[in-house]
């Protein structure tokens, strides 16, 4: 499922389920491209620097704020 092009209200509804799981003590792992989803995460892992044969490294790990401070991270620049 891709979240590209979803309205913020749809994203908020989408987050209700994982938020309930986390509140119940479960862990949730999501693969997301939507910055609103990424910003709501407790912990982010950013692979890169690009896709395919240009990837294969971990560019940033941490909270969204910590990832935003990594200039080499494409995701971090937009956070």
TrEMBL record:
What are the alphabetically sorted keywords of the record?
A: ATP-binding, Cytoplasm, DNA damage, DNA excision, DNA repair, DNA-binding, Excision nuclease, Nucleotide-binding, Repeat
Record-level GO BP terms: DNA repair
Mind telling me which GO cellular component terms the entry cites?
cytoplasm
The record ties this protein, via InterPro entries, to:
P-loop_NTPase
Q: Where in the cell is it found?
A: Cytoplasm
Leader sequence residues: none
| Superkingdom in the source lineage | Bacteria
According to the UniProt entry, its GO molecular function terms are: ATP binding; DNA binding; nuclease activity
Similarity annotation: Belongs to the ABC transporter superfamily. UvrA family.
Q: What is this protein called?
A: UvrABC system protein A
Q: Which species? A: Sulfidibacter corallicola
């Amino acid at each position: 499922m891709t979240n590209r092009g979803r309205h913020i209200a749809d994203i908020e509804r989408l987050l209700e389920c994982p938020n309930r799981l986390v509140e119940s003590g479960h862990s949730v792992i999501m693969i997301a491209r939507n910055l609103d989803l990424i910003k709501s995460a407790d912990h982010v892992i950013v692979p890169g620097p690009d896709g395919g044969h240009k990837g294969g490294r971990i560019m940033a790990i941490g909270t969204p704020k910590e990832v935003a401070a990594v200039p080499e991270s494409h995701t971090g620049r937009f956070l």
